[in-house]
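Reply to dn_fold:

You asked what the input looked like. This is it:
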Amino acid sequence: MVAKRIIPCLDVKDGRTVKGVNFVGLRDVGDAVALGAQYAAQGADELVYLDISATIEGRGTFCSLVSRVAENINIPFTVGGGISCSDDAARLLDAGADKISVNSAAIRNPQIIDDIASRYGSQFVVVAIDARQVEGQWRATTHGGTRPSNRELFSWAREAQERGAGEILFTSMDHDGTRGGYPCDTFAALADHLSIPIIASGGAGCVQHIADVLSLGKADAALAASIFHLGEILIPDLKQELNKLNIPVRL
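and this is what came back:
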């Protein structure tokens, strides 16, 4: 059985790791490179670095940060934020990123998924979907969850898969930062709808939440931020607890 992955997420603004609720009320929680190295040493399977201000401010993700991360950690990491074309992806991959994540740009121009996948391979492409429930439907948003789109979660995820995405990173904006648990029913339905791995994001507050989304939610990986940044759950302890629950993880 394929091991489930534990992925700390580092939301980055100006080179520092920040955290808030629904991407607002941000507070500094540490140096992005040092924190990533700490998580790698603790046994994280992968890392995700999201430059959360890049799309809003029209900037590209800083390749210098990616280079420093690559020099200091020995596990795969994904970088997203401000990637608007395959050349942006090329610069990040050349700087040392293992995968790139596209979100707002993919909704604006879905061809970017095809372009990056055909140029580098699907294994390098993560399509991030930040969605909220609107009148009973999950609607994708852009620009860090600040702008609604006309894309529905399930149809958009399927299109992204067909265009060459290797993974889907779905964040429930209704749950992000609230630490009240993931919407497991939605994740399970999405898993049944797709054939590529799903990374679950938005809502982790305790070990049971992560266990639930990896089992009941059928997610391939659980991504979390606050519980790791604040030291409330240590990755080795989390993995031991998941192992006791017969959820396959790399110990």
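The chain has eleven helices and twelve strands.
Hope that clears it up.
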